[in-house]
Amino acid sequence: MTWFLACSASIVPGGDPPDTSSPVDSAADTAGDTALPADTGTTLDDPLPFCVNEWMPSNASSVATNVGHYEDWIELHNPGTEVVSLAGYTVSTDRADDDPDAIEALDIEPGAFAFIWASGEEGEGEWPVTLAAAGGELALFAPDGRGTILTWGSVATDFSVARATDCCTGDDCLGFVYRGTPGTTNVPPSTREVTVLGAGSTWRYLDTGVDPGSTWNDVGFDDSAWASGPAPLGYGDDGMGTTLGYGSDANNKYITTWYRTTTSILDVGAVTSATVGIRRDDGAVVYLNGTEAFRTNVSEGPVDASTLASSSAGSYNETAYFEFPVDTSLLVEGDNLVAVEVHQHAATSSDLVMDAWLSVERL
Asked: Looking at domain 193-362, which of 1.10.3720.10, 2.60.120.260, 1.10.443.10, 3.90.850.10 is its CATH number?
């Protein structure tokens, strides 16, 4: 979940709406307003027992109705310990409206989130209002006169306006969230980083210069005849865990070497992001479970045993671990294959190195 442009919210008496032409959004819970019946004009101290927790004025792809339409939407949250009934509540997009719409009866269980379509139609799960993406107002009042008035400026398509913690008030409460979190908490889930393949791990490798064929990076490929050793793997530099061969001619070294290892990832459905760090001299193409995840210092297009790296890696670039985010859909439950091919920039290159790690963020 990504937050943009923090704003403010507070519980205050009703009054004139703020200038919605401002790019800064604001929200206010109000008790008492000139739009209310005369006998409820006195300011009350208690806010509503629930809040408008999030709303999206321009929904193009966030969430669709059961017939595939994309309507504006509103999320309510009950942070209390008792059921909240909205029987008798009214809603409008103008606090001065003297004939606001009655909303469909709705009970919100303790701790629950209620999702409402702001479709302009009356019905179960729908409110007879629409939200203005260019800036607008939403006024929601209880039968006793307590209410919430929300105002906002321009909101981009598929961004919601959301309370940074559910039903928060006060400064820096509101923010913009791409596609929103409809029907669920606005509090981002906590994650932790786990290294599932560490630097210095053991790899099977092929350093004969002979192309192993197009299936070498497939999960089912038989690499039992390959040698194995701990990373860093290479030659020409100090600190190698495994020294590789490069052929009989120092002026015509093998261009490409190939590497494979597996690592176990459990509960892969809880993984929210993944990152590979790779040390390569000169360039590399990295695969996860047979699919290319990324390449570094190797031009786009088909590669084979004779493909040269784009440039020579020197100085810092020989020792750095370059980090790349990878698509978590490439990961599978249990054993995962990481395959790397390293390409030299020239057959006369004096050194070669490969090492890599894989870490994931999981809930």
From this structure: 2.60.120.260
